[in-house]
Specification:
This protein is mainly alpha-helical and about 220 residues long. It contains nine helices and four strands; from the N terminus they run H-H-H-E-E-H-H-H-E-H-E-H-H.
């Protein structure tokens, strides 16, 4: 999988699909704003439950790498104990980056409420604000942490040609449990074949994946 990655001509790709990317951005703005307004009562309830379950802020902020290799701050509902990043370091082997898996089923830093939020994907809801701001899209490659991106070979960096998404082709194909090389393959396949219709299909598949709780932990 890792040795057969898709090559994308950036200039031709963006030029040929610029109208669809404009439509995609319009849909992102409308749906994210709608979601923020409609789901505001759920936001308040989840914030209260998170605060009651464990000490710390309800919203977790972290630097991620977005389109064109630009850093931005991602928002998520907190699912781990405070200072979780200090209690366990990522084990990244630059020589075997393709087999890196970000999430782990055996992570004792996850809170009880956090486990529920992850299984239902409700922890991702604050990212609607990222979408509205223009840092993210509803559909696209998941935004990566800088510590992983710095080890990207050139072919992996192609996933930074578009805005990262709340969901994507990789997520509906395995979510958090697949290794990086396979994730990159799905991401580049999505970018190469991007269309508004493909986004719509991925959004529908995401709903089914969430209800089935596939790959979530």
């Amino acid at each position: 999988m890792q040795n057969n990655l898709i090559e994308i001509n950036e200039q031709d790709h963006i030029r040929d699909k610029r109208v669809q990317f404009a439509v995609k951005r319009f849909i992102d703005i409308v749906l994210s704003l709608f979601g923020i307004i409609v789901l505001s009562p759920i936001y308040l309830i989840l914030i209260l439950l998170i605060k009651l379950d464990s000490k710390g802020p309800a919203v977790f902020k972290q630097v991620r790498v977005g389109k064109d290799n630009k850093d931005f701050t991602i928002y998520k509902f907190r699912t781990m104990i405070v200072d979780a990043e200090k209690k366990r370091s990522l084990e990244i082997n630059p020589e075997d980056i393709g087999n890196f898996v970000f999430q782990s089923k055996e992570d004792n830093r996850i809170t009880k409420m956090g486990s529920f939020l992850r299984k239902t994907s409700l922890d991702e809801l604050p990212q609607l604000f990222n979408v509205f701001k223009g840092d993210m899209s509803l559909v696209g490659p998941r935004p990566e942490i800088p510590d992983v991106v710095k080890y990207y070979p050139p072919e992996y960096a192609q996933r930074l040609l578009v805005l990262p998404g709340i969901t994507g082709l990789a997520q509906v194909s395995g979510r958090g449990e697949i290794e990086l090389a396979k994730t990159i393959y799905y991401d580049l396949t999505y970018i190469k074949n991007f269309s508004v219709w493909l986004d719509i299909k991925i959004l529908f598949k995401t709903v089914f994946s969430v209800f089935k709780k596939e790959g979530a932990f």
